[in-house]
Target: Hypoxanthine phosphoribosyltransferase
Amino acid sequence: MNSDIKEVLYTREDIKNIAEKIGSQLTKDYAGKNPLVICVLKGAFLFMADVVREIKTYAEIDFMDVSSYGDGTESTGEIKIIKDLDVPVEGRNILIVEDIIDTGRTLNCLVALFEHRKVASVKICTLLDKPDRREKTVKPDYVGFKVPNEFVVGYGLDYQGFYRNLPYVGILKPEIYKNN
Ligand code: PRP
Ligand code: MN
Ligand code: MG
Model:
């Protein structure tokens, strides 16, 4: 284990199992609906890869790069679209895949954006949900795990760009970020 990690919350095996479970539900829910599955970069890249491989029906894949946190541990409240989708979404069934819902600002903003673009439906699939921190309303449809109000990293989640490549989700030791 990485020495900056205080505790592992979810192992790769736990995440693989939950991705299979969510994927089989998605296979049923989206059969015949040709969903556009959207990965919210960068955090969602690993969970996205797990989930889409468990969707056993036709699905299109696209990517958006959205950022709110910059380099700190706190959201700045501003959502920046760094890369938009490549395809139009009007009339499409959208499934947004995220690594974590924290304050809810990112997804609240994305859902509003897709509604403005006149999608047929928009649903949310997230590996982690941290409901204690919610500031904006977001209703995730598929949730891997609910996490306590701790600074979690790994499996896509970063602190200052690091730890995304850890093959598990863990709690970062407070001494790593407390002086920033
Ligand atoms: C993180 C995370 C979610 C969002 C959740 O992304 O990946 O997208 O914050 O926080 P919120 O619910 O408070 O909006 P970040 O902005 O750090 O960009 P990244 O995915 O590139 O790390
Ligand atoms: Mn993100
Ligand atoms: Mg981040």
